[in-house]
Amino acid sequence: MAEARAVVHGNTHHDKVADVCAAKLDWSLVVGIVRMYEMPLPSNPKDFYQVDMILQDSQGDRIQCSIPKPMFCFYKTLLKEFGIYNMRDFIVQTPGRGIRTTSHRFKLTFYQKTSVQRLSNQPFPFSPFRLTPFAGVAAMKEGRQFHLIDCLGHVVGKEDVIDMVTRNGEASKRMAVYLEDLEGNKMKCTLFGEELIGQFQFYLQREHVDPVVMVAQLFKPNFYLEETSIQSTFNSSRIMFNPDYPEVVQFRERLLALGDIATQGIADVPTQSQNSVSVELAGGTMKVETIESVLNMNVVCSRHNIACN
Fold first, then answer.
1. Which pLDDT does position 273 carry in this prediction?
2. CB 16 within 8 A of CB 124
3. Which of 122, 211, 223, 236 lies 20 to 30 A from 299 at CA?
4. What is d(CA 60, CA 291) in angstroms, rounded to the nearest whole number?
5. φ, ψ of residue 259 in degrees (nearest 5)
6. Cβ–Cβ under 8 Å, residues 144 and 269
7. What is the pLDDT of residue 210?
8. Phi, psi dihedrals of residue 217, rounded to the nearest 5°
9. What is the mean pLDDT of the chain?
């Protein structure tokens, strides 16, 4: 069995997140909590079945970690976002299919032997963001990117809010926001759900000084019509405006140095016309709003021989 490498903090050896595998349970990690959020029950969205965390070590590597609800009561007063901890002993599992919160090939789960100690002295500089440049996002093509990323940009445009219906038949909303980097590259960022859209609208209604710099944390790359954009996912995604973190402060200072470009207002981008389509599934009929959703659904229908009307 290959022995995992270790990193030294003080006089204690700890494992690297990159080395975590299913070969053992007694991993010892020194990590910061990038994000912590509840996973709601499908049958009752007001309740949750587990708490998920994104952990990051001194090397910048991330891994997903879950705490079952019955165990969370023992940790809820100790665990806080952006805190740094020594965590020991986990169940190591393989993530399920689909989009993951990190690129790590394993995930962690707390169990009866897991121990947690908050570190009062910060053992390494910790930032909750691991930013992907716009050029990096543009290079992510369909089938090559399955984990969530962080992006940073100057808000230069927005579209109107659009009502939509989710795959579960629930009413929701979507809104497109346009971000620009320091080189003038633009990227579309789609917000789903009333909570994120409400946060965006509330911030714009407040008195603020331009420029508005937004961090899109844990967003999904989306390849569509030969272009890559980012979009929020439920539960894990978050947006922040002009947060006081070094990389954001540096971005804003460099943006202000550009002069007039930084003080341009947020433009209203015309919203594309909408259509609707009903998709007949085994469980009933689902109505999908917006042209983009219709085109995506037509692809799904053709692949699975489903009738679209």
1. 43
2. no
3. 236
4. 39
5. 80, -120
6. no
7. 72
8. -100, 130
9. 81
User: When comparing pLDDT for 32 and 286, which is higher?
Assistant: 32
CATH topology of domain 134-268: OB fold (Dihydrolipoamide Acetyltransferase, E2P) (2.40.50)
| CATH class in words for 6-118 | mainly beta
Write down the H helix ranges in the chain.
69-72, 134-138, 194-205, 246-256, 291-304
pTM of the model: 0.78
Radius of gyration of the chain (CA): 21
Q: Do domains 6-118 and 134-268 have the same CATH topology?
A: yes
pLDDT tens sequence across 39-95:
998 888 889 999 999 999 999 999 999 999 999 999 989 999 999 999 999 999 998
User: Is 263 a residue whose pLDDT tops 70?
Assistant: no
Check if the beta carbon of residue 202 is closer than 8 Å to that of residue 191.
no
Any idea where the domains of the chain sit in the sequence?
6-118, 134-268, 273-309
Task: Specify whether the CB–CB gap between 61 and 14 falls below 8 A.
Answer: no
Q: How far is CA 299 from CA 166, 224, 225, 227, in A?
A: 17, 12, 12, 17
**8 A C-beta contact, residue 237 and residue 141:** no
Identify whether 211 is preceded by a cis peptide bond (ω within 30 of 0): yes
Q: Is the pLDDT of residue 291 over 50?
A: no
- At 223-250, the pLDDT tens digits run 877 788 999 987 899 999 999 999 999 9
The first and second tokens of residue 217, run together, are: 């944390």
- 191 CA to centre of own chain: 11
| Residues 59 and 144: beta-carbon distance below 8 Å | no
- 195: amino acid identity, one letter: E
| C-alpha count within 13 angstroms, C-beta hemisphere, residue 111 | 11
With tokens 């954009």, the residue in question is 229
Q: How does DSSP assign 100-129, residue by residue?
A: BSSS-S-EEE--TT-EEEE-SS--S---S-
